[in-house]
Amino acid sequence: MAGVCRGAALSSEGVRDNGIRLRPWAPADAATLLAAYDGAGMSTERLNGVETVEDAERTIAEWAEDAAADLAYTFAVTDGTDVLGQMRVTTQLRVHQIGWISYWTLEKHRGRGVGSTGLKLLARYCFGELDLFRLETGHRLDNPGSCRVATAAGFLVDGRERQKLLYDGVRYDTETHARLATDPDPA
After folding, report:
1. Does residue 44 fall inside a structural domain?
2. CATH at 98
3. Is residue 3 assigned to a domain?
4. What is the pLDDT of residue 46?
C-alpha cells in the first residue's frame, strides 16, 4: 500500500462510523477502565496488576508507549461521550503485515452492534494507516457473542485451535477468524 504511514497516530477525534468511534484511551478514562474489568464476562480481560485507578492510569500510559513503538494500538470504543468497549491490535508480526486483534464490549452495550462497528473501524485503520494485510482474532468456542462480532465485521473463520487458552485451570478450544485487506468491506 503505497503512501501509507506505518504506525500513524490516531487523532483524538478518532475514526467514526454510525455514531461509534475509536479514540486513544486517556488518563481520565482510568476509573472507567478499572470498573469495566469488574463487569460480567470480563474476568479474562483484566490485566494482571490492574487493581487500582493508579494501575489503570499506568496501563493507559503503557498503551501509548506501545503505540509509539509500533507494537500495539489500544483504543476506547465510544459514542462520543461514554466508553462502550475496547479494540486492540498488536503488530509483532509486522514483517508479514499481520495484526492480532482483541476486543471487548461492556455488558450494558452488548447486542447493539458496538463491537462489530468498532471492529470494522479498527480494520479500516489497520489496513489504511498501519499497512497491515492480514488481521486475526479468536474466541473461545463458548463465546458466541464474540463470534458474531467477528463475523459481522467481515472476519472469516480460519479454523479451530485445540485447548489454546487456559483460564482457572481449564483449557479451552478457540475459533480463529481472519480478514484480509483484499476482502470486501462487510455490509
Report:
1. yes
2. 3.40.630.30
3. no
4. 67
Domain that holds residue 53: 15-180
Query: Would you say residue 3 has pLDDT above 60?
Result: no
Residue 36 within any structural domain of the chain = yes
Residue 1 lies inside a defined structural domain of this protein: no
In SS3 terms, the chain reads as: CCCCCCCCCCCCCCEEECCEEEEECCHHHHHHHHHHCCCCCCCCCCCCCCCCHHHHHHHHHHHHHHHHCCCEEEEEEECCCCEEEEEEEEEEEHHHCEEEEEEEECHHHCCCCHHHHHHHHHHHHHHHCCCCCEEEEEEECCCHHHHHHHHHCCCEEEEEEEEEEEECCEEEEEEEEEEECCCCCCC
Mean pLDDT score of the chain:
88
How many domains would you assign to the chain? Answer: 1
Q: What tens digit of pLDDT does each residue of 47-104 get? A: 777 889 999 999 999 999 999 999 999 999 999 899 999 999 999 889 999 999 999 9
Once rounded to an integer, what is the mean pLDDT over residues 7-33? Answer: 75
